[in-house]
Amino acid sequence: MTRLALKPLTFIAFIVCSIALPAVAASHPNLVINQQDVKAMKLAITQQGAFKDAFDAKLSAVDLGLTQPIEVPTPKDAGGGYTHEKHKSNYQQMYDTGIIYQLTGDKKYAKYVKNMLLQYAQLYPTLPLHPKRKSNNEGKLFWQGLNEAVWLVHTIQAYDFIYDALTPAERNSIEKGAITPVALFLSEQSPHTFNKVHNHGTWATAAVGMSGYVLDKPLWVERALYDLNLAKKGGFMRQLSELFSPDGYYNEGPYYQRYALMPFVTFAKAIEQNEPQRKIFQYRDGILLKAITSTVELSYNKLFFPLNDAIKSKGIDTIELVNGVAIAYGLNGDPRLLDIAQQQNNILLTGDGLKVAQGLDNHLQQPFPFTSALFRDGQHGDDGALVVMRQGEANDQAIVFKATAQGLGHGHFDKLTWQFYDAGNEIVSDYGAARFLNVEAKFGGRYLPENKSWAKQTIAHNTLVVDEKSHFNGDVKLANKHHPKLAFYDAKQDLTISSASIDTAYDDVAFKRTLALVNIKQRDAVIGIDIMRVTADKPHQYDLPIHYQGQLIDTNFDRQASLAQLSTLGNKNGYQHLWSLATANLTKEKAANELAKVTWLNDNGHFYTLSTLVNTNFNHTTDEQMLFTQLGANDPNMNLRQQQSFIHRVNATNHTYVSVIEPHGEYNPSKEYTLAATSSVAGLIYHQQDELEAVQINFTDGQQYLLAINQTDKAVTQDTQSIISVNGVQYPFSGRAQLLSIK
Fold first, then answer.
1. For residue 419, which of 122, 336, 374, 397 sits 20 to 30 Å off, Cα-Cα?
2. Cβ atoms within 10 A of the Cβ of 404, count?
3. How far apart are CA 575 and CA 301, in angstroms?
4. Are 666 and 606 in contact (CB under 8 A)?
């Protein structure tokens, strides 16, 4: 096979077609649904239930669409423009109308889809490359080939639905003018995308492979699975092997995981229907089912964690995950998936959608278990990890600790960053992507220039910035070669903790971060604890930002505000977008190991205080400041959201940041009362003894707690006993970490 990869494609096609390829099903439909599914669905729409309700709603929408004239315009707009959106609505309308034909048998629906496909068959062969094409992935119908592949994934299913209602001449016209040219454009004419291990490649291979099943072209299927040359250097199987970790985490993060999920599960369903002997859903220990579940788990209050290039409004109700949950439930019948399906409130008109509807009708759903979890990154699970910590009775509190690999071109320079959630809201936030998806007035709906100048830069995240430079100096190729090292992850009932380090983000600076989410039941409180240890060969400026959601309420130190004129915090690497609102000289205000406290009020009605130690180096030579900023500088088109942050700046060679985030109190404007608006943390003390360290937390009511941690590189079990000495008193603890009450 390696020798074949060096031959011209035409010769390979001859060889492949002359050998035995897997049989392709001849009956239609044969992709996401089959004839048995249609029979069961036809019966279901005669009975009351969730499936009939979904059918009735779709039937009304489709009937309304049939009253409108068919329009297949010449492409001219980028994302969000009229022609772009029209071609998107067309493929969705063809899909919906096709499935209604399958369920009713009324040929007026098949006729509508046929007529639209015939118009595409006339238009497509005349199209040049799109006038607003992306140079790295051009399209014809759309500005980028990715959308072309999405069009074909939907359109080939619509064609499959009406296939038996067409004459041979009509099929020939549609296949010759639309299906085949698009499939060849996505494959032979776009090898750089088709063979790429990337979500664009996934959509392209799914589109071509599914078309191969419908048009009875086994070679298309094989190319989709194993790349154009059948050399297994790309293709769907390579994507399954490399883009997901063994835990089902997708390299580009949850936002793109849910987007890539659609072609993964749809093509896999088609493979299962046509060639069950491939056992596609068992591949890599059931990696696709893991990916579906992990996509759900990487959410909070129905929204995905906004890692990397993420649109923050995307959540578990997206159609990609609706498909994934339905297909997974159809395979394993897991009642916990019905809980998610109920929240999605979207029943698909497929065989799997029918199973979901029947499960909900029979009240079979069980609560989906959102728990603390470790998601390893990388093909073999050794490229760092994403850690999700959850606490509280309803998992109200969550910390996301990002110690993953870069995430290819959609990754951000944010090694060891974190986010904090509470009471349904994001409290310590990540900006996500700078993009207004499909809003043409905002740079054609594409990623804004500020995505590179701000959103990807390290200062836009809650992690260490050295000398105002981003990690890896903003070099994606370099960043993709390195990843953090996960030291440990440990989850107990009331304590979840993890630690990771990296020494490649900067030339001579290494930093290690340990984050813990602790449920102190005696206080009915959940707090987050953050320890960041920075070491270097020479002095540097260290900035550790906190991007917070809410209104600043108070600090326990004086701030010098900029009242008449604002200046930017810097001139590049994201600093040029930050207005400097106020500064505080912590060195003058605070003695060694005193607290600097910042309190803000979130829209959820709760107060939050970050208490951080000042001068943990036990001397008075460290220069420390707290800088208060607002996003929006050097933004002539007002593309950036106005968000706030405070930055703990330290000038030193080595430094240890020690902080606690504490939710507290309540503000109720309608009932006009305020409770516990002041932090109850009275003091923090950081202890370090060789591989052992501890954070002592003193509260205003006299209670004291000690988070003791064993940071050794050696394996630590729950039976491991360690002893840390605090003020002459020895405190034994077991396992990796333990919260001790010391008074």
1. 336
2. 31
3. 31
4. yes
Higher pLDDT, 408 or 310: 310
- Tokens 């912590």 -> residue: 586
| DSSP string of 267-325, one letter each residue | HHHHHHHH-GGG-GGGHHHHHHHHHHHHHHHSEETTEE---SS--TT-BTTSHHHHHHH
Cα 75 to Cα 83, 128, 284, 488, distances in angstroms: 6, 10, 41, 52
Which tokens in the block code for residue 170?
Answer: 């009509």
Determine contact, residues 21/222, Cβ cutoff 8 Å. yes
Average pLDDT over residues 291-298: 97
Contacts of 384 (CB under 8 A, 6+ apart): 376, 377, 378, 403, 404, 405, 483, 484, 485, 486, 500
CA–CA separation, 557 vs 570, rounded Å? 24
Reported as type and span, the H/E element at residue 389 is: strand 385-391
User: SS3 for 40?
Assistant: helix
C-alpha span between 650 and 627 (Å, rounded): 11
Q: In terms of residues, how long is the chain?
A: 743
Of the chain, the end-to-end C-alpha distance in Å amounts to: 70
Torsion-angle region of residue 593: left (phi > 0), alpha (psi -120 to 50) or beta? left
Coil, helix or strand at residue 25: coil
CA distance 450 to 592: 39
Asked if residue 29 has a cis previous peptide bond (ω within 30° of 0), the answer is: yes
* DSSP structure class, residue 522: G
Sign of the CA dihedral with 230 first, then 231, 235, and 241 last: positive
Residues 6+ apart with CB under 8 A from 698: 681, 682, 683, 684, 685, 704
Give me the DSSP letters along 447-491. B-HHIIIIITSGGGSSS-EETTB-GGGG-HHHHTT---EEEEEEE
Could you identify the residue written with the tokens 């090292």?
A: 485
Two structure tokens written together for 739: 């919260």
Give 425-478 pLDDT, tens digit per residue. 999 999 999 999 878 888 888 899 999 999 999 999 999 999 999 999 999 999
- Residue positions annotated with a catalytic role: 256, 410
Query: Do residues 132 and 446 touch, judged by C-beta distance below 8 A?
Result: no
> How far apart are alpha carbons 475 and 205 in whole angstroms?
29
Contacts of 209 (CB under 8 A, 6+ apart): 220, 221, 223, 224, 225, 236, 267, 270, 271
Tokens of 663: 């939710």
Q: What tokens were used for 62?
A: 């489709």
The 3-class secondary structure across 237-259, one letter per residue, is HHHHHHCECCCCCECCCHHHHHH
Distances (CA, A) of 295 to 472, 493, 509: 28, 23, 34
**pLDDT confidence bin for 584, thresholds 50/70/90:** very high
